[in-house]
Amino acid sequence: CVCVCVCVALPVRSGRKTFNKLLVVSFDGFRWDYDQDADTPNLDKLAQEGVKAKYITPPMITMTSPSHFTTITGRWIEDHGVVHNLMFNATSKQMFSHKATQNRSEWWDNGVMPLWITAQNQGLKTASFHYPGGGANYSGQAVNRALVESYTHPDSNETEWRENIDIVMGWFSQEDFDFVTLYYGEPDNVGHRKGPETVERKEIIRQIDHTIGYLIEAIHKHNLTHRLNVIITSDHGMTTIKKIPEVQEIKLSNYLAFSKLVDFHLLDYGGFGMITPKQGKEEEVYNALVNAHPNLTVYRKGEIPESFHLAKNSRIQPIVVVGDLGFNMNSRFIFYVNKGDHGFHNGEMDMKTIFRAFGPDFKKNYLAEPFDSVNIYPLMCRLLGVTPAPNNGSLSFTEGMLVDSFDPAPTTPAILMSFILVATMVFCIFLM
Ligand SMILES: *[C@@H]1O[C@H](CO)[C@@H](O)[C@H](O)[C@H]1NC(C)=O
Ligand SMILES: *[C@@H]1O[C@H](CO)[C@@H](O)[C@H](O)[C@H]1NC(C)=O
Ligand SMILES: *[C@@H]1O[C@H](CO)[C@@H](O)[C@H](O)[C@H]1NC(C)=O
Ligand SMILES: *[C@@H]1O[C@H](CO)[C@@H](O)[C@H](O)[C@H]1NC(C)=O
Ligand SMILES: *[C@@H]1O[C@H](CO)[C@@H](O)[C@H](O)[C@H]1NC(C)=O
Ligand SMILES: *[C@@H]1O[C@H](CO)[C@@H](O)[C@H](O)[C@H]1NC(C)=O
Ligand SMILES: *[C@@H]1O[C@H](CO)[C@@H](O)[C@H](O)[C@H]1NC(C)=O
Ligand SMILES: [Zn+2]
User: Fold this and answer.
1) What is the pTM of this model?
2) How close is the Cα of 143 to the center of ligand 2, in Å?
3) Is residue 89 in contact with ligand 1, taking CB distance under 6 Å?
């Protein structure tokens, strides 16, 4: 009987072990073509040794927290509910900064499970290093290990970048973590401050490329080459903000009497904005804006195009405004702080971002056609052997990236595995 137990239980346990580990690295605001005008030997080498997508399309809204959360949940923004970088309450008028939201579960935990939690519930060990949403609890569950970016965290210290890689490599090699997400705040920061078409942006891309070289070395050094898959991606692109005299900038107070008509707004935050009209003033707000400026599009919540996958969420305010590429949604003043910005329509090439992948389960020298970032989720699940939660992605866009020998048999869900194990034990006890 002991013999039967061991024989039946072994293949069940070892089924899990055939899946390799996964690291997802996100470089915030890495536009799809940033590697084309800067010297990037390591990224170029990776294209030979792994997978490169021509570009990927972030969800609409092309903003950091909403887009990162779509990647880690595989859900459209209207489903996962993280509709902005700022946490806000249109009734109390309270607002919290992007960094302040990071450990506020009530902003992130809206009934949709990010992959960390789903994977943990199926027996995997997961961690988040500064990745948006990693610091929150989901239905009371925390990510096994989560580091949240401090308010004073430097965005571009290359030494610190390398230290973070060393820490993550230690998590994989010494503590047997299965899935880690690692986030860097560049090149977004430089793209905003200096603009995407500057020497400073090319400089930070070179720094990112060095760091990717360091990552590849670190993987070898920790003997993870044959058991760690890596995805390098980002959340949105970046475009140069258009200014006078080249264009007439959009300042909404030129068309809209804020104090009379507007109760609350999320403007002055790139190309996308939301307005909460005062009671009964919705039509007045809409009419004031609908023909105000040729490069401004205004939507009533009920008329937001279905393709945005936005309107369903209660956090979306009654009026949504989107600028043409490079036209920021300014309210009463124009703050000339950002030379570059995002938030614009995800169909614009400047909003597209990167996808690279390498490791034992990925083909080499494989150029993938463009796809939506919502499809990264089922790929991650497949790589980890995790049964996905309900999601809006499809494996059909990415499965061609995997080596032909990859896991031909469908994954046995963890619950089924536990059931087989328990059933076997019960059967053995019965025999005894
Ligand atoms: C928003 O603020 C209002 C007024 O203070 C409060 O009643 C409501 O519960 C808040 N909503 C959320 C989701 O916290
Ligand atoms: C998550 O839950 C733990 C345990 O209940 C709690 O100590 C912690 O403060 C919570 N964190 C957040 C960000 O809500
Ligand atoms: C979030 O972090 C801030 C400071 O970093 C801290 O004051 C606050 O208590 C934390 N909140 C939660 C829910 O952990
Ligand atoms: C960069 O990070 C390293 C390691 O964390 C630290 O020793 C160094 O002081 C930092 N440099 C700057 C300029 O902040
Ligand atoms: C590296 O990993 C491989 C496969 O897991 C193993 O066979 C080998 O012994 C390891 N080498 C070292 C130096 O740890
Ligand atoms: C701004 O609007 C004008 C007039 O419709 C149009 O010709 C121009 O292409 C628009 N600019 C952008 C960046 O879409
Ligand atoms: C996204 O997925 C969820 C969960 O399966 C589903 O309820 C929702 O209808 C999907 N959204 C779209 C636009 O298909
Ligand atoms: Zn971002």
Assistant:
1) 0.91
2) 10
3) yes
How do residues 178-235 score in pLDDT, each as one tens digit? 999 999 999 999 999 999 999 999 999 999 999 999 999 999 999 999 999 999 999 9
Q: What residue spans define the domains of the chain?
A: 21-239+346-401, 252-337
Residues annotated as part of the active site: 64
Q: Please give the DSSP secondary-structure letter assigned to residue 94.
A: E
Residue 11 has pLDDT above 50, yes or no: no
Ligand nearest to the CA of 378: 7
Helices 64-73, 376-384: axis angle to 10 degrees equals: 40
- Between CA 360 and CA 364 the distance in angstroms is 10
Distance from Cα 406 to the centre of ligand 8, integer Å: 32
Instruction: Tell me how far apart the alpha carbons of residues 153 and 156 are, in angstroms, rounded to a whole number.
Output: 9
Structure tokens at 19: 């899946």
CATH classification of 252-337 is 3.30.1360.180, yes or no? yes
Whose C-alpha lies nearest to ligand 4, atom 13? Answer: 157
Give CA–CA dist 171/174, Å, rounded.
6
- List the shell of residues around ion ligand 8, using CB closer than 5 Å: 28-29, 64, 188, 235
**DSSP 3-state percent helix, strand, coil across the chain (nearest 5):** 40, 20, 45
Specify the CATH number for 21-239+346-401; select among 1.10.1060.10, 3.40.1260.10, 3.30.43.10, 3.40.720.10: 3.40.720.10
The beta strand positions in 74-188, using DSSP E, are: 87-89, 94-96, 126-129, 137-138, 141-142, 145-147, 179-184
